[in-house]
Amino acid sequence: MTKQHTDNIPGLMTADDGAIYCTWHASMPEYHSGEWGRPVADDIRLFEKICLEGFQSGMAWITILRKRENFRAAFDGFDFHRVARYGEEDIARLMADAGIVRNRAKIVSTINNAQRALELIDEAGSLAAWFWQFEPPAKERPEVVTLDYWTANPSSEASTNLSKALKKRGWTYVGPTTIYAFMQAMGLVNDHLTGCACRDRVEAERKAFKRPVQ
User: Fold this and answer.
1) Parent domain of 121
2) Is 73 contained in some domain?
3) Contacts of 98 (CB under 8 A, 6+ apart)
4) Is the pLDDT of residue 5 over 90?
5) Per-residue pLDDT tens digits for 41-88
6) Does the annotation mark 31 as catalytic?
7) pLDDT greater than 50 at residue 4
8) 9 pairs with which residues across the strands?
């Protein structure tokens, strides 16, 4: 049993272990507490996440999360060096794969973005170095993150700037809202609600994290 609110604070819940978490922890506990918001510098994971956020567009994230292992198998572990070489046979194979979201435009976008990822590496040395330059400064972040803040800010100035920079370089399915979700998940911002047991843990990891540089 879980409570949908803790001390009447929307967006928080008390789990069976007595800890307080963001309410959505109830449906995705391992993802919420083990992954979301932890800073990432691995290029493959960054590429995977931005592609999966593109597939998620118009759908619930939990749908994509449940299919994530299928996506990894279908897209060679999101090794963008391999995906960049995909052709029509691969598109046909993916369109026949019931384990993933069979949306041709999103599949073609993933292949395109893999090719653009290689170009970004030529530009910045790594995807991580390029993405992390868009981390917003602390002064632009709220001291207290509430559910109201979340719902009122589905994107940010930083995600808009990152989205524009990606689109300029030919990336697709990278709108500001999609990119903000990417930034939240990959630790470029810490959007665990204030009061969530994971917030301080994530913030400690972010402080200890060595930002990649170009």
Assistant:
1) 43-208
2) yes
3) none
4) no
5) 999 999 999 999 999 999 999 999 999 999 999 999 999 999 999 999
6) yes
7) no
8) 6
Active-site entry in 31, 149, 150, 205: 31
Is residue 109 situated within a structural domain? Answer: yes
Neighbours of 114 (CB within 10 A): 22
- 180 is known as an active-site residue: no
For every residue of 109-127, DSSP letters joined together read HHHHHHHHHHHHHHHHSSH
Marked catalytic residue, from 21, 36, 48, 53: 53
Q: How many CB atoms lie within 10 A of CB 37?
A: 26
Q: Catalytic residue at 123?
A: no
Task: Work out how many domains the chain is built from and give that number.
Answer: 1
Among residues 21, 36, 48, 61, the one annotated as catalytic is 61
The CATH number linked to 95 is 1.10.340.30
User: Taking 60 as the threshold, does the pLDDT of residue 38 lie above it?
Assistant: yes
Q: Which residues contact 53 (CB under 8 A, 6 or more apart)?
A: 173, 178, 179, 181, 182, 185
**Is 13 within the bounds of a domain?**
no
Give residue 150's pLDDT band: very low, low, confident or very high (50, 70, 90).
Answer: confident
Is 14 a member of any domain?
no
Tokens of 53: 């956020």
